[in-house]
């Protein structure tokens, strides 16, 4: 695991050779931004000593609650090791909240399904759906506790150079004892991807959002698309 100190300080690899994250991302230049969500932006960076690109997630630090969410995300994903999960390689929590991931050259699934970045073959679509299912099985069954992602959607499914899927963004994830359900009074997730009964029960579904993504992969339509109207 790479050790990352504050933004103004150093990123250190296994040989303790310092590299600045700000330099790696051109000081978080807008042109280096890969995407942006409710928690902040993701930037591409190049680390010469590692001879590789990385994705740096810069999280907005606006509240104590956000601090707790960041700490929980680091705790959860730093323990995960699976071929279909985006690999976390470092983090920073002094002054700035930063997460450093392995860079995914083919970007997010939604960019291929809805933004016409490339046309996915049926073989590739099947591989993505199967890989995502494998990653979720690992999260739900193979750890000491069940990991509920709570925000499974096509924009959080990344792809490497061979279109192997990698589920990312664990900012809303929760650890739950096996055999129990996560219940909350605050909804977490994305409209169109959450189970309808979640609003009333407060219990997050393990599989509903996967079904939504599977339908998106099959038909190439978003779960909520105003141009098609209501049915």
Question: What is the topology?
Answer:
Layout: E1 2-4, E2 11-12, E3 18-19, H1 21-24, E4 33-37, E5 40-47, E6 52-59, H2 64-77, E7 88-92, E8 97-102, H3 109-113, H4 122-141, E9 146-148, E10 157-159, E11 165-167, E12 174-176, H5 198-201, H6 208-219
Parallel strand pairs: 1-7
Antiparallel strand pairs: 1-2, 2-3, 4-5, 5-6, 6-8, 7-8, 9-12, 10-11
Helix pairs in contact: 4-6
Task: Outline the structure in words.
The chain has helices spanning 21-24, 64-77, 109-113, 122-141, 198-201, 208-219; strands at residues 2-4, 11-12, 18-19, 33-37, 40-47, 52-59, 88-92, 97-102, 146-148, 157-159, 165-167, 174-176. With 231 residues, it is α+β, with helices and mostly antiparallel strands. The chain has two domains: 2-102, Phosphorylase Kinase, domain 1; 109-228, Transferase(Phosphotransferase), domain 1 (Orthogonal Bundle), CATH 1.10.510.10. Strands 3-2-1-7-8-6-5-4 form an eight-stranded mixed beta sheet. A two-stranded antiparallel sheet has the order 9-12. A two-stranded antiparallel sheet has the order 10-11. A hairpin with a 5-residue loop joins β2 (11-12) and β3 (18-19). α4 packs antiparallel against α6. The radius of gyration is 18 Å and the shape is globular.
